[in-house]
Design a protein that fits this description.
The complex is a heterodimer of chains A (198) and B (131). Chain A is mostly beta strands and 198 residues long. Chain A contains one helix and twelve strands, in the order H-E-E-E-E-E-E-E-E-E-E-E-E. Chain A has one domain (2-136, 185-192). Chain A is globular. Classes of the chains: A mainly beta (198), B alpha+beta (131).
């Protein structure tokens, strides 16, 4: 499994990719995220579609402490075609309370029907660790603009602290400016991701 | 039947040639043609979009990278800031943005391209219909 994930990452890096941690120009985004690693509230502003700056207040569940991070995400490459979009992002965060920091890459490719995404982070904290995931999605129906949209997805994640690969189902719903992503695994419990753009 | 009625109405009453923008529109069977090329639009959606519009011009813009509702939101938000824009709609299936402008507006494709690029997508080409 590990070698396939590595090949997958390498292919993505070679082919470029795309994702959505940045909004449209002059767009604001508010997110709540909760999984077995952290619970956070993250606000970011995108002066341009190329980058976003934001602040994240989080409860680090691994080290049982709260942190405030300043985050910066940059769109390194985007490829738009008639039926698809792919992105490749650089992402980073620095703590306002200590010398902890995070950097990594994020990529995705999607059509109206299919989605493939990955995320890789190096986390410098009390203990340094890596955190990565891949996400595969299928839209069971193709909604039009303004409709209620649904994605059925599979997420596989691993961090170097517990060093266990966890794979579980995720559903994503969105309508208008509101998005909700829910995932569940018996070992890691719920992943909840709520996003609002304005 | 309703569709046929709509197309007939569209071709007889609503669509006229736009010499100022060097566009030529005509209707052939159930399709709308601009400069001899078929305008790929969802007729029902287009009908709803045109409903109640008068003294307007509609830009039908082909856009690359518009693959999801969530990522197309910014396009609408950008264009509605323009006071000359009466209405906007997104056709995700065909990758088109429909923008209804007031008649007085001089439509500039470069302006449309730059506004769509603000959202991270690419406008490829466009057609203008007078309503």
């Amino acid at each position: 499994m590990g070698i396939y994930i590595k090949i997958f990452f390498i292919l993505f890096l070679v082919l470029n990719t795309e994702a959505r941690p940045i909004s449209y120009s002059d767009g604001h985004t508010l997110m709540h995220f909760n999984d077995n690693m952290k619970e956070s509230i993250y606000y970011h502003y995108s002066p341009s579609f190329k980058y976003s700056i934001g602040v994240e207040e989080l409860n680090n569940k691994i080290f049982d402490r709260s942190e405030t991070n300043l985050r910066f995400t940059y769109l390194v490459n985007r490829k738009n075609t008639k039926n698809s979009q792919r992105n490749f992002y650089f992402q980073s965060a620095v703590s306002t309370k200590n010398s902890n920091f995070i950097y990594g890459v994020h990529g995705d490719w999607e059509t109206r029907r299919y989605f493939i995404g990955f995320d890789y982070k190096e986390v410098k904290n009390i203990i340094d660790y890596t955190d990565k995931h891949i996400l595969l999605g299928l839209a069971p129906y193709l909604g039009e603009y303004g409709d209620f949209h649904t994605w059925l997805m599979v997420k596989s994640k691993k961090n170097s602290i517990n060093n266990k690969q966890v794979t579980y189902p995720v559903v994503k719903f969105f309508r208008g400016n509101l998005l909700l992503e829910l995932g569940y695994d018996k070992k890691t419990d719920w992943d909840i991701h709520l996003m609002f753009r304005f | 039947m309703i569709r046929l009625l709509f197309i007939s109405t569209l071709s007889i009453n609503l669509i006229s040639s736009d010499e100022d923008h060097h566009m030529h529109q005509n209707s052939h069977n159930h399709d709308v043609y601009v400069q001899g090329e078929k305008l790929e639009v969802d007729q029902e959606r287009f009908k709803s979009f045109l409903y109640g519009l008068t003294n307007s011009q509609v830009a039908v813009v082909n856009v690359n990278g518009m693959v999801c509702d969530f990522c197309a939101r910014g396009i609408e938000k950008t264009f509605v800031k323009d006071k000359a824009v009466k209405r906007i709609d997104i056709d995700l299936e065909r990758g088109k943005v429909l923008i209804a402008y007031s008649k007085e507006k001089e439509i500039d494709f470069d302006e449309i391209k730059s506004k769509i690029l603000l959202n991270g997508q690419n406008a490829i080409d466009f057609s203008i219909l007078n309503i």
